[in-house]
């Protein structure tokens, strides 16, 4: 089963992605994790990504799709993957669709974690306090939300044109949200 989690920064994709992966026995792919791993392993794509990231630029769709392709070919991904926000642009959505089709697979479910901006801002402020993450300062949060609206939000419409997208209320207790996701997946 291939499942894509979409939603704005702070919607809970990382938390719920880990929980779904454990519950369903599938690996979880997140863009940041895949890129950090490729950099740490010193792969060709990892070296390219490192150069781009160190310059403070966004990693290209080609590099992201290359890293995803490498991982999709690993035996541990044969039964499916939880894609934790990996698809951030329409080009990435098209690329992942092609990769899955080459394997005789498709994106089985697209789950959109719907969370209002005020809740997102509160969550990210709390996360900044708890985890001391430098990328959760107010200016960075606003930049990420803006980038999400410009680049990633159109991906939601792209998927909606191609099949059902399950809009999940992303507010409430973590267990409640997980139950909503599992219900949408028929679990």
Plain-language structure description:
With 187 residues, this protein is α/β, with parallel strands linked by helices. The chain has one domain (3-178): 3-Layer(aba) Sandwich (Rossmann fold). The chain is built from eight helices and five strands, in the order βαβαααβαβααβα. The chain has a five-stranded parallel β-sheet with strand order 2-3-1-4-5. The N and C termini lie close together (12 Å).
Please give the structural blueprint.
Elements: E1 3-6, H1 13-24, E2 28-30, H2 31-41, H3 44-54, H4 61-72, E3 82-84, H5 90-102, E4 109-114, H6 117-131, H7 138-162, E5 166-169, H8 174-184
Parallel strand pairs: 1-3, 1-4, 2-3, 4-5
Short note summarizing the structure:
With 187 residues, the protein is an alpha/beta fold. It has one domain: 3-Layer(aba) Sandwich (Rossmann fold), CATH 3.40.50.300.
Return the structural class.
Answer: alpha/beta
Beta strand count: 5
Shape: globular
Low-confidence stretches: none
Specify the CATH homologous superfamily. P-loop containing nucleotide triphosphate hydrolases
Q: What's the CATH architecture?
A: 3-Layer(aba) Sandwich
* Gyration radius, in Å: 16 Å
Strand order of the largest sheet: 2-3-1-4-5
CATH topology: Rossmann fold
Strand content: 5-15%
How many domains? 1
N-C termini distance:
12 Å
Question: At the first level of CATH, what is the class?
Answer: Alpha Beta
> What is the succession of H and E elements?
EHEHHHEHEHHEH
Distinct helical segment count: 8
Mean pLDDT: 89
The largest pleated sheet is described as: 5 strands, parallel
**Roughly what percent helix?**
55-70%
